[in-house]
Amino acid sequence: MKPLPRILQISWHQFNRKPLLDYCRPVARPFHTSSPLAVIKPFLLSDIGEGIKEVQIIQWFVEPEARVEQFDKLCEVQSDKAAVDITSRFDGVIKKLHYEPEDMAQVGQ
């Protein structure tokens, strides 16, 4: 079986997981004068509290093709315990939103 191109490879623990959104962020290549590569990086919903397995997406603060920086607000989610704003871990460009407002998203996916 022919291996997938590098940009399409996923690690075994991410298989069958639906990311919250996809980023395209530049990757620095040290000691090179060429321009940085763009890599699509899935953004998995992090654990927002002990025992919380799913959350409802209340609203998005970003749209596809929007440029974001680290700590910018991405969305507001609500669990049975609290409402939380999810912030960006990376600098980059939003490529795709995988959920609509009012959808339920699994933590870690």
Could you explain how this protein is built, in words?
With 109 residues, the protein is mainly beta. It has no helices and eight strands. The strands form two sheets. The chain has a four-stranded antiparallel beta sheet with strand order 2-1-7-4, with no helix packed on it. A hairpin with a 4-residue loop joins strand 5 and strand 6. The radius of gyration is 15 Å and the shape is globular. Mean pLDDT is 76; it is low at 3-16.
List the SSEs and their pairings:
Layout lengths: L20 E7 L9 E7 L10 E7 L6 E2 L4 E6 L4 E5 L4 E6 L6 E3 L3
Antiparallel strand pairs: 1-2, 1-7, 3-5, 3-8, 4-7, 5-6
Q: Keywords for this structure?
A:
109 residues, mainly beta, 4-stranded antiparallel sheet, disordered N terminus
Put the structure in a nutshell:
The chain has 109 residues and is an all-beta fold.
